[in-house]
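Quick review question:
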């Protein structure tokens, strides 16, 4: 049962009963180092509800076969499940057309696809790509590889101290050679929610397409690619309570149709001859080889689960936790939050004077509290704030105020040990 729209047992009036939802996630009911597990590493990956675990297990137990090329019953069933997943993702993102949904291994592969295919075709020597100073490495390095290969330049939108983007500087970066903007929707290192609709409008006024990295956004707010008017949107299933190893790229149909393949193999061709081959239409042109079929089934279960609760209720719940957690963390002696933008998702990134982030993470683990410590694959963000690493608590739909209280108690252990 996942439609718990009642008073929150934590006392917050968010319309979501996180304590009840926790029962859907078997992994949460365990102890770590003799303490109840408090899972606050949702930015890295989310845990899976029974609905997802069962959907994947049942698919392997009953319906699994390779897709598209079989005439037998199991292959037809598996194909229907996989192509049904495409319809489900289309609905989830409100894409205009199912052919605009390309399955990938995740966000990273989606960005690499666009860099190799769109970038290889449309970005050349002297052209410019605009990124922001808060991108995840997966939305930096593919562009660097392309830029090195073709001789393009990367321009970077600077950040204000609170972790928001300098939008005037952004607007000033456009020039006659700007070919693409690639921007993160929600920063994994800072929690900043970027005004991507506004940024897309600015880019389009210059005739420049925009790729949005939605890895940290889809589980926390409703995404509508038509309302955003973005050209590409990438996300990973494992960050929205689905399996790892699968994700999707939304691409505007006319762009995908004009793009060349980026990987060759089975399923992406129309005809093959040694004299030359021809390509399938999108999205199949970009899906060479056997995909993560069961992953697509799990992704459907995850999207159904999340939509069953309602993304608006999830967002309200997480915002309550964010406000609660921010107020408590600000009282921890020596603690500094990194990322305090007005519009933030449920990420609390912080440093403590005189304590390395890895030591924070290790002490918290002994208290049963799972957080991430490190550069969060966003080294330029660490450089911007002059820190080698941060500790990061990232919240999900099953977290409660009690989890935040446990984090704060565990941080008291840190300050006792290192203070
Ligand atoms: N972009 C952001 C903002 C992320 O947080 C992550 C993962 O942490 C990624 C991209 C990469 O996602 P994946 O490893 O699932 O491809």
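Suggested answer, residue by residue:
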């Amino acid at each position: 049962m996942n439609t718990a729209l009642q008073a929150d047992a934590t006392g917050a009036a968010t319309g979501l009963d996180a304590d009840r939802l926790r029962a859907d996630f078997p992994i949460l009911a365990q102890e770590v180092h003799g303490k109840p597990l408090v899972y606050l590493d949702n930015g890295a990956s989310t845990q899976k509800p029974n609905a997802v675990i069962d959907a994947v297990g049942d698919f392997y137990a009953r319906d699994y076969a390779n897709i598209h090329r079989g005439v037998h019953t199991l292959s037809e069933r598996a194909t229907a499940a996989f192509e049904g997943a495409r319809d489900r993702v289309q609905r989830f993102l409100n894409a205009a057309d199912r052919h605009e949904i390309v399955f990938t291994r995740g966000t990273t592969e989606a960005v690499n696809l666009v860099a190799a295919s769109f970038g290889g075709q449309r970005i050349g020597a002297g052209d410019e790509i605009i990124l922001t100073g808060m991108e995840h490495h997966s939305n930096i390095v593919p562009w660097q590889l392309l830029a090195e290969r073709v001789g393009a330049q990367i321009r970077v939108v600077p950040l204000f101290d609170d972790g928001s983007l300098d939008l005037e500087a952004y607007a000033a970066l456009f020039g006659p050679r700007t070919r693409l903007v690639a921007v993160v929707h929600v920063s994994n290192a800072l929690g900043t929610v970027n005004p991507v609709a506004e940024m897309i409008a600015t880019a389009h006024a210059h005739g420049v397409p925009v790729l949005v990295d939605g890895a940290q956004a889809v589980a926390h707010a409703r995404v509508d690619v038509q309302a955003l008017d973005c050209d590409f949107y990438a996300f990973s299933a494992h960050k929205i309570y689905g399996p790892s190893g699968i994700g999707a790229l939304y691409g505007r149909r006319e762009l995908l149709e004009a793009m060349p393949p980026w990987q060759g193999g089975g399923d992406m061709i129309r005809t093959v001859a040694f004299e030359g081959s021809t390509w399938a239409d999108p999205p199949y042109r970009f899906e060479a080889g056997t995909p993560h079929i069961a992953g697509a089934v799990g992704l459907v279960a995850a999207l159904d689960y999340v939509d069953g609760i309602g993304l608006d209720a999830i967002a309200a719940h997480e915002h309550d936790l964010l406000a609660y957690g921010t107020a408590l963390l600000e009282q921890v002696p020596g603690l500094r939050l990194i990322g305090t933008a007005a519009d933030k998702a449920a990420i609390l990134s912080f440093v403590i004077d005189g304590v390395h982030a890895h030591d924070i993470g290790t002490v918290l683990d002994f208290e049963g509290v799972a957080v991430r410590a490190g550069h969060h694959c966003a080294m330029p963000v660490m450089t911007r704030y002059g820190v080698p690493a941060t500790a990061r608590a990232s919240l999900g739909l099953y977290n409660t105020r009690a989890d935040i209280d446990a984090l704060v108690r565990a941080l008291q252990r840190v300050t006792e040990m290192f203070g």
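Why it works: The first helix runs from residue 18 to 22. Residues 106-108, 136, 138-139, 184, 188, 213, 215-216, 236, 377 surround pyridoxal-5'-phosphate (CB under 6 Å).
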